[in-house]
Amino acid sequence: MKIRIVGGGPAGLFFAYLMARADSGHDVRVYERDPEGATYGWGLVFSDVALAFVREIAPEVHDSISSGQVVFDDMEIVHQGQHVTLAGNTFHRMARIDLLGALQRHCRQAGVGLQFDRRIDDVSECADADLIVAADGANSAIRTRYRERFEPTLDERPNLLAWYGTTRLFEPLSLIFRQNQHGLIVAHCYQFSPTHSTFLVEVSPETFRRAGLDRMSEAASLAYCEAAFAEDLQGHPLLSNHSTWFRYTIVKNAKWYVDNVVLLGDALRTGHPSIGSGTRLAMQDAIALFEAWRTVGDHVPAMLEEFRRTRRPRSDSLQQAAIKSTEWYENLGPKLHLDPISFAYDYLRRNGRVSHAEIQKRDPALAAAYERLHPAVERVQ
């Protein structure tokens, strides 16, 4: 097969590698619009479950990306100035640029052609391909050009986010809720390397306007956030990497493929940073599309339908959980009066997929503390 992949992120690179490794006769090329070595994010988070998928199908890739990971077992909620530890939440973190570098190396070893600084907005540039994979991100140019056929729904959420880094090392994945004269400001932060942490700041539209962040420069916004989280940063600076404010868009598509063009990763469907699902979904998409080829062979229409049929139910379920998590952050006002234990408990149950019984198993200390505050809660013997 002649396979052309638009977008050199985790979805496109992993699928390229799997196909090239499986059959050296495949002609696989990846076109990436950015220069080699460029990345505009900080760290990535994987759960044990997400990494298990990679380990099962490509242990050599798993070993490559595992060598640079930082692993901690706990989370921490900071609310009303108090720290609440949430046990049993193992997360693997690594630098986004390290993941991309590892995937690029494996692709080259498998014979994949990688072209950087190459932007493709129209599939006519790949007219001779048997299969075209649009893995060009949430703002996919391919999906946009053919939107009448893919029928995307783009739901821009109201809260605003800025993606910073810092040299303050947050070992537990930490969610920090601070209130000042302008309103609530939230930080999602975690160490992803021996020297750096991701520090994602989130505010409501009301806080954004009251604070004047809508009128501030990038540098002034960074200084404002440093001051808001001075107690948490402990003298460490925030770092910018094109860290401008943005609203997150929930992407859905009625059609997953059109003719021989299929969407993958964020171009197909987005999760949300609050559950750290984007890279996991992207790499699972790559696996699912590869498995569809293994099932039906080189018949592209059958392959793409098999991908949609087998992948969509799980994908939709994960995205729905991400939407519920997003809505939790967007409607925090009525919850801010809760004591720190009850607030942390409410956070764990925000997407409707975690029961009290599961919290008892994962974090018995938190469950017991919540039961002391709320004796009427159903107990599981």
What does this structure look like?
This protein has 381 residues and is an alpha/beta fold. It has a domain of 201 residues: FAD/NAD(P)-binding domain (3-Layer(bba) Sandwich), CATH 3.50.50. 40% of the residues lie in helices and 25% in strands. The protein is built from 14 helices and 17 strands. The strands form 3 sheets. Strands 5, 6, 10, 11, 12, 13, 14 and 15 form an 8-stranded mixed beta sheet that branches. α1 links the parallel β1 and β2. α1 runs parallel beside α4 and α13 packs across α14. The longest helix is centred in the C-terminal third of the chain and has 31 residues.
Brief account:
Helix content is 40%, strand content 25%. The protein is of the alpha/beta class and 381 residues long.
Provide tags for this entry:
6-stranded mixed sheet, FAD/NAD(P)-binding domain, 381 residues
Describe the SSE topology.
Layout: E1 2-6, H1 10-22, E2 27-31, E3 43-47, H2 48-57, H3 59-66, E4 70-72, E5 75-79, E6 82-86, E7 91-95, H4 96-110, E8 113-115, E9 131-134, H5 141-145, H6 147-150, E10 152-166, E11 173-180, E12 183-191, E13 197-203, H7 205-210, H8 218-228, H9 230-233, E14 238-239, E15 246-253, E16 257-258, E17 261-263, H10 278-296, H11 300-330, H12 340-348, H13 356-362, H14 364-373
Parallel strand pairs: 1-2, 1-9, 2-8, 5-11, 9-17
Antiparallel strand pairs: 3-7, 4-7, 5-6, 10-13, 10-14, 10-15, 11-12, 12-13, 16-17
Helix pairs in contact: 1-4, 1-10, 2-3, 2-10, 10-11, 13-14
Q: Can you tell me the CATH superfamily of the domain at 2-58 and 92-156 and 251-329?
A: FAD/NAD(P)-binding domain
Q: Low-confidence parts, pLDDT < 50 over ≥5 residues? A: none
Overall strand count: 17
Mean pLDDT: 93
From the N-terminal CA to the C-terminal CA, the straight-line distance is: 57 Å
